[in-house]
Amino acid sequence: MSTNRDEGSAGAAGRFPAQPRVLIGFADALAAPEVVFSLSDAGFEIAAFIREGAPKPAIARLPIAALITLPPPELDAGATIAGMRAAVDKMAPAAILPLDDAALWLVDQAFGEMTEGLKPAMAGAIGACAEIALSKTLQVELAREAGFAVPPTRIAESRADILAHRDFPAIVKPALAAELRAGALRRGDAHYLMAASDLEKLPPDAELSYPALIQPLIAGQGEGIFGFAGIDGITAWSGHRRIRMMNPHGSGASACRLKDLEPELKTAATRMMTKIGWRGPFMIELLRDQEGIPYFMELNGRLWGSTALGRRAGLEYPAWAVKQALSPEFMPPPVVLHDPGTIRHLGRDLLHLLFLLRGPKSAFHRGHWPRFWPALAGVLKPASGRRFYNWHPHYRTFPLRDAFTTISHFMGRKR
Q1: Which CATH architecture has domain 125-149+219-415?
Q2: Cα–Cα distance between 353 and 376 in angstroms, integer?
Q3: Is the pTM of this model over 0.85?
Q4: Which residues touch 46 (CB under 8 Å, ≥6 apart)?
Q5: pLDDT at 254 exceeding the cut of 60
Q6: φ and ψ at 318, to 5 degrees?
Q7: Residue 270, by phi and psi: left (phi above 0), alpha (psi -120 to 50) or beta?
Q8: Same fold, 2-122 and 125-149+219-415
Q9: Check: CATH 3.40.50.720 for 2-122?
Q10: pLDDT reported for residue 3
Q11: CA gap 249, 149 in Å, rounded
Q12: In sequence order, which residues have a C-beta less than 8 Å from that of residue 393 and are 6 or more positions away?
């Protein structure tokens, strides 16, 4: 266990008074810096966990009381669970807040093995809710029942099911956001099927994930529905639309802004999350096609990459999640949304330009490929610090540090 402090942290205790400790992770999750700021501003002390051998996370320079290394679940998930249990026994955090799908899986698995009397409050999905949050198969069924438009979806349980598919172009993607195979946690890859000939190019079964979802490729704009479910229902609604994706082939946003929610979408989201019995923040990802139909893509049952947008608008989803975990009757205070304009992640915006220069992988993507020069103008447009992900008045240079970390880690994975 190690302690890491950042520039200006000598006065951090005064700005961020120590209160109940919250354990978050994985520390390199996209949402991690905004989560740290939200929890710190709310007065919580923060510890974070990361994979052993992983590059130093950007948040190591923020007010983190402890940075805990765990065996990578991608190598030995059992050892990771044991490491999590030992860390909780030693540190006795008041709450745990998972920040990505691997952490959501880990915390759910480890919770049952934690020492009674030392179990922290869970500011994330566990049990049946965690199963739904990690299973796109269950999500698609629930979304359809709730009234969302859902793309035609086939569930492939084997290679033969994929080879039998005849509607192109399509995408084959893992149904499980985190899959345990031979004692190791893995996240499978998506595969494009632009034509029947691509069926012959599929990798061996050892590299495929089952069950898998087969859906048509849809050109459109990404959107999100956000809310907070509590004992008195769902509140703190917001929506966003993607201005730019880091990877135009399909990825999280590098720039986004608020969007009004249509009543029918809010109704469908209420039905879905109420049926699940959800508590805490949630994000429903949509893709609005060129005819204006918003298709359900997935439910993010943990904090999302664009958490910065909600926070700039006045929605402290991370701190609220922990407060609810510690006090189940907690409901967020009324918030009048402030439109912060376009919020940008500097590092991911720069990577967006790199992807544009590399060009599209297929004729389908070529027809909807963003133009480079308008994108360059958007990325280079001057903006105040508050218009960037991961900005805080006490850590004004952090977006630059985070951009460097984002790009260097991305390039390191490509070597």
Answers
A1: 2-Layer Sandwich (3.30)
A2: 7
A3: yes
A4: 21, 22, 24, 36, 39, 40, 63, 64, 65
A5: yes
A6: -65, -50
A7: alpha
A8: no
A9: yes
A10: 38
A11: 22
A12: none
What digits encode the pLDDT tens for the residues 101-136? 999 999 999 998 887 777 899 999 999 999 999 999
pLDDT of residue 409: 85
- Backbone φ and ψ for 398, nearest 5 degrees, come out as -60, -40
pLDDT band at 49 (very low <50, low <70, confident <90, very high): very high
How far apart CA 93 and CA 102 sit, in angstroms, is 20
- For the stretch 142-187, pLDDT in tens is 999 999 999 999 999 999 999 999 999 999 999 999 999 999 999 9
The domain segmentation of the chain, as residue ranges, is 2-122, 125-149+219-415, 152-216
CB 213 within 8 A of CB 202: no
**Cα end-to-end span (Å), the chain:** 29
Q: At what angle do helices 101-111 and 77-91 cross, to 10 degrees?
A: 70
Residue 32 has φ and ψ, to the nearest 5°, of -55, -50
Give the CA count within 13 Å in the CB-facing half-sphere of 54: 24
